């Protein structure tokens, strides 16, 4: 059986890879072999950075809570400890949002936790 060189499946496969690498520099977006390698690497970066995104957002939330609580004279560690002891269940994302946008509510939460 002869080898098929210009099959519809091969074209579809190439098109899929080349469309995924659209916007990559130079041959990485034009040549199938290089584009395939570039696509694999970009997927690895995407997987890694989805994990790092969670880490960096958590650090941002903690920094915001710390800044807001220190304005009220309470360090972050004491605030979080007293929140857990009083069974006040608010995650860091919500607390940081309160510290930035709704300062009066954040102040009440801090006072409740510390008292």
Structure described in brief:
With 115 residues, the chain is an all-alpha fold. The chain has helices at 8-20, 32-71, 76-85, 92-101, 103-114.
Structural class: mainly alpha
**Number of folding domains?**
1
Q: Could you state the order of secondary-structure elements as H and E? A: HHHHH
The CATH architecture = Orthogonal Bundle
Quick one: CATH class? Mainly Alpha
What summary fits the major beta sheet? none
Strand percentage = under 5%
The gross shape turns out to be rod-shaped
Assigned CATH superfamily: Ribosomal protein L20, C-terminal domain
Spatial extent as radius of gyration: 25 Å
Count of beta strands: 0
- Report the CATH topology name: c-terminal domain of poly(a) binding protein
- Mean pLDDT, all residues: 95
Low-confidence stretches: none
């Amino acid at each position: 059986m002869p080898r098929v060189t210009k099959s519809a499946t091969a074209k579809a496969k190439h098109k899929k890879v080349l469309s995924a690498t659209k916007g990559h520099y130079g041959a990485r977006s034009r040549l199938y072999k290089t584009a395939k390698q570039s696509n694999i690497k970009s997927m690895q970066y995407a997987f890694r950075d989805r994990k790092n995104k969670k880490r960096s957002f958590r650090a941002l939330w903690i920094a915001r809570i710390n800044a807001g609580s220190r304005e009220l004279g309470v360090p972050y560690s004491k605030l979080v400890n007293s929140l857990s002891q009083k069974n006040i269940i608010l995650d860091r994302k919500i607390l940081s949002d309160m510290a930035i946008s709704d300062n009066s509510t954040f102040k009440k939460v801090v006072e409740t936790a510390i008292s």
